[in-house]
Amino acid sequence: MKIIEKKTWPEFFRKVKDGKKNVEIRLADFKIKKDDILVLREWNPKKRSYTGWIVKRRVGAVHKVNMFKFHSLSELKKYGLYAIEF
Q1: Which of 19, 21, 77, 85 has the greatest number of beta carbons closer than 10 A?
Q2: Residue 8 in 3-state DSSP?
Q3: Distance CA 80, CA 17 (A)
């Protein structure tokens, strides 16, 4: 089990903290697996500094997907991605 720290903007931080968001979409430029601890540190983009608030969540599952198998870069830029919870 590893502890992985990442910054997150206030609007997303609040949703995780309040239990309204339980899916995180990130660039897969780091290693993470089930049972690791993801520590999200709230980042204020206007002040370009951390607020001091953190939230910790145990990783339940990780799914890595290469979206370029299914869509072009222009489509991804135009439409973005959804994270759909069930």
Answers
A1: 21
A2: strand
A3: 24
Q: What is the DSSP letter of 9?
A: -
Instruction: Give me the residue label for tokens 């993470």.
Output: 32
Q: Which two tokens stand for residue 40?
A: 């999200």
10 vs 25: CA distance, rounded Å? 15
Please report where in the chains the tokens 């370009």 appear, as a residue.
48
The model's pLDDT over 8-60, given as tens digits with 9 standing for 90+, comes to 999 999 999 999 999 999 988 999 999 999 999 999 999 999 999 999 999 99
Alpha-carbon distance of 18 to 10, in angstroms, equals: 12
Domains contained in the chain, CATH given? 3-79 (2.30.130.30)
